[in-house]
Amino acid sequence: MTATSKKSRDHAESIFSKTQTQSMSLNRIISEQDAVSQAREAKTARLRELRLEKEADELAAAASLAASPKRAGKR
Question: What is the sign, positive or negative, of the torsion defined by CA atoms of 42, 43, 47, 48?
Fold first, then answer.
């Protein structure tokens, strides 16, 4: 091989290696962001479920208070 073709090949391999490293880093970052996003969505769903359950309990308690007859005191 001539010196020029070896330099060209080394340069091309260097560029390819750099591009490959950047691609792997980007994939890792995207995976981490996806994991964070999924965890946030799961937590939001759990909190929404708890809030709806609490609201349903409060509505049931308010309905039972409204349905129970009020007693007038005897004199």
Answer: negative
Total domain count, the chain:
1
Give percent helix, percent strand, percent coil of the chain, each to the nearest 5: 85, 0, 15
Q: Does residue 71 sit within a domain?
A: no
For residue 32, being part of any structural domain is answered with: yes
Model confidence pLDDT, tens digit, residues 17-70: 999 999 999 999 999 999 999 999 999 999 999 999 999 999 999 999 888 776
The rounded distance, in Å, linking the Cα atoms of 10 and 57 is 70
State which residues form the domain around 43. Answer: 18-55
